[in-house]
Amino acid sequence: MVKLKKNELDRLICRLAGSYDVYAPVDIDGNVEFARVSSAEDMDQSRTVTNLSPKEIFFPKDEVLFEYDADGIRPADSMDRPIAVWGIRSCDTKSLMLLDKVFGSAIQMPKEERFQDPYWKKRYDGALLFGAACAEPLSTCFCNWFGGGPFATEGMDVHVTDIGDAFLLNPVTPRGEDYLESLDFTAEVSESDRKAAAEIAGSAEAVMSPPVPIDGLDQLLPGLFLQEEVWGEVSAACINCGACTFVCPTCHCFDMQDEGRNEKGRRLRVWDSCMFPIFTSEASGHNPRSLSRHRVRQRVMHKYSYYPVNYGEYLCTGCGRCITVCPVNVDIRRTLLKLMTHDGEDG
Amino acid sequence: MSNPYIPVPMRVSRIVAEDPERNLRTYNLLFENDADRERFTYLPGQFCELSILGKGESPFGIASSPTEKDHLRFTVNRTGSVTEEIHYLREGDIVGMRGPMGNWYPVELFKGGNVLIIGGGFAFTTLRSLLVYLMDHRDDYRDITVVYGARSPELLLYKEELSAWGERDDLKLHLTIDNPAEGWDGLTGFVPTVTKELSPSPEDSYAVVCGPPIMIKYTLPVMSELGFPDDRIYTSLERRMKCGIGKCGRCNIGPKYICIDGPVFSMAELRDIPEPV
After folding, report:
1. What is the pLDDT of residue A108?
2. Interface ipTM > 0.85
3. Is A311 an interface residue toward B (CB < 8 Å)?
4. Is the C or the N end of chain A the one with fewer CB within 10 Å?
């Protein structure tokens, strides 16, 4: 572990920017999201949870897959510099690990043999992630339901704790360790620095509500699938606006769309949402998920049942963004509790 | 690393209108590049995404058999914007293709057994692929029986081949239409009813059922009634698709993605998936 004085942060960012495309939380018209930065001045590190998740760095809202003209098809010009991220929380680094299982990665799951997504891999595989400890968890934070916590380090290369006048940089991976060793402007960590960090960690843990045990939820859900009543209840308020899916760091559904005229154009992939009826609407007019409650069921089943069947863990990290952003106050924690305590009797 | 999102160019070599309204057309496609052709190996039941650049992509079951080495064949029903554009294609035009995608009918498993192919309407595409494949490996299989139904005689696909198959003595072909029609000397009645009346033996037999949802829904119980066990009844599912490689989320049913875990499923696999059809 090394110490970085706060007035040296800009030096670190500039150093990173020499060989990486550097992303950090930035206030864009009142919304804090991850964007390219060239100096520490550009950043806003005040939010525990950014309004938009950093999945966008690796899986952009819209992305050109290829361009075409009369001469044929060319894959889109892609970035040639690796990505570094400063200030990413543990719920979000964990979510990138979950997405990596879908898009293809170094994590060897049996299903990885099938197809790997070259666009995702190019960005994620070489990324250097400086994760930020959470000193002030929010009331919407429930990462501890999924084994996380304000000081969790999973998915980070370097874990960063803000101790007031300095950051403590703790390497998590060899990649992170190598990078820290290459820095010549860090200081040694003193006993009192460690104590300060431990105190911050302790008070952050104390703020978190105790986790609700959801072991077995994945086993329980398939049995509820056909119980229309309970899905009607948990989806009653939902207006299918899709906001939860766009702020979610693990939602990864997308559409593919063509733009162009005549002989010249491009094909993009753009974020899509299982909350929209058109998502599954077929050309014949048939729609397997035409009802709102069936779309809500799909989202819940995918995150808490289907993904666990395929990858052994929940597709949710408890970041709480869906709770914050929902215009009708749907709280996924309440939904899960309702499902877990449903008595199973249904007409 | 190969990029699964990039279509390869194929040239339309032949177009056949299958029905009088010309809503169903069959396209033979040839690879433009030898390297693409050499890389492309498939089995009956798999599908491809066909691309019209500027308009988009849609998935289509491969109607040719891998034993027909020179071309790929697809039958396209004009229904939406991409299929509309495909119908504007003329012989010699270029179309984009990604694939092959998905799994296939277990032709290895069928070896040494009887195969019953049950199809309805314009879903006969991958069933044609299967049938041609089986006939080209005729010695590997015992009885091959086909029940194929459509609303009317004009809506049966591949009419020339149907009459040729009807002549063969190593294939039992039963064609049926929903209602009696002038000049029709085949069977009359819905596919599930006809199948039940034919009462094929489940002994050492495998059944492949493919058609519109309503046909599948009523045929699967008939197969069970006839004594076919769930792990010997196969069907092919469809959903709206985009990526075809298990990422975009659209064709998710239960923990499966139709594009990579299917489209071919046994009844035994579908038992665990609510509302698959």
Report:
1. 42
2. yes
3. no
4. C
